[in-house]
Design goal:
alpha/beta; Rossmann fold
């Protein structure tokens, strides 16, 4: 495997979203699992949260936790780091609401950390990487342009999530044109075999060639598990990534009551934050614990 591929992915995902696009059965979920495995090997602090609708991740994923999200419990699901959320029982509208709920909680936590600890404190927080299976459900123009809180959260995530260490892999089987332009303009491309004329034309318009073939024409001839990565500056590939058998993870039940009690001394706060804010700060700590992200504060102990 090309080290250039891994190094570029690792660097880019801190700055941008990455769209994974290919025909059905080409290995989109498999390559994302392999990439996550490698990224977590390089950075064990990396946090991943996968939103799945097809059980593609349930029995074979490099994640420590799994939760089944149902119409009865979605509004009260525990926000757990390194977790797979299986959402196949939800309607498309409820999926949007659930995903936006998790993202909004993480976003609010990072904003509060920025407010209290400043930019240096925020830099110590690990990257949160979301994986959206069938991402056109969440990020097509219709979903993003609705006048509701879910759309507002997802638009903010696309536009300014990078400033708070929130990025994503967006997996799409449908034509990439079905994703909203707000996302596509801020994303790089991991490309497998594409078959639609629309996708081929879109890739050809990028005026990038692989040998004597335009990018779209080259993508149309890729073999299964072979990929091209294009970040607007350079084209890497084709690279071949075989699926990894992670087996069923040794999952411990997620227990919202099992909260780690964090003791953060006022003396550890930046000098320019008045001690009188201690009461509000403890309320913030409690809220973070409820949001299941208290472990992140280990970086400030």
């Amino acid at each position: 495997m090309s080290e250039e591929f891994w190094d570029t992915i690792e660097s880019d995902i801190h700055q941008t979203h990455i769209i994974i696009n290919s025909e059905a059965g080409h290995g989109k979920s498999s390559i994302v699992k392999s990439i996550i495995y490698e990224l977590k090997r390089r950075d064990p602090k990396l946090i991943c949260k996968c939103f799945d609708v097809s059980f593609a991740w349930w029995d074979n994923a490099p994640l420590n936790h799994r939760q089944m999200v149902t119409p009865d419990n979605w509004a009260n699901i525990f926000n757990q780091d390194n977790c797979l959320y299986e959402m196949g029982d939800l309607t498309e509208e409820t999926r949007r609401l659930f995903v936006s709920l998790i993202v909004k909680q993480d976003y609010a936590v990072r904003r509060k950390i920025r407010e209290i600890y400043g930019e240096e404190g925020l830099k110590k927080m690990p990257l949160i990487l979301y994986i959206f299976e069938e991402s056109d459900t969440f990020f097509d123009s219709t979903s993003l342009n609705k006048k509701d809180s879910a759309s507002a959260t997802l638009r903010d995530f696309i536009k300014v999530g990078r400033n708070f260490g929130l990025r994503s892999f967006c997996i799409v089987t449908a034509n990439i044109g079905e994703l909203g332009t707000k996302l596509r303009r801020r994303s790089k491309s991991l490309i497998g075999r594409v078959v639609s004329d629309e996708d081929i034309r879109e890739l050809n318009r990028k005026r990038k060639k692989l040998g004597d073939k335009k990018l779209g024409d080259a993508a149309a001839e890729l073999q299964r598990f072979h990929w091209l990565y294009y970040n607007g500056k350079k084209l890497i590939g084709p690279v071949s990534i075989d699926p990894i058998d992670f087996g069923v993870p040794n999952v411990k039940p997620v227990d919202p009551k099992a909260v780690v009690e964090m003791k953060i001394k006022l003396e550890d706060k930046p000098k320019d934050v008045p001690r009188s804010e201690g009461t509000d700060f403890m309320q913030i700590v409690f809220w973070l614990m409820v949001a299941a992200l208290v472990l992140s504060f280990l970086f400030f102990r």
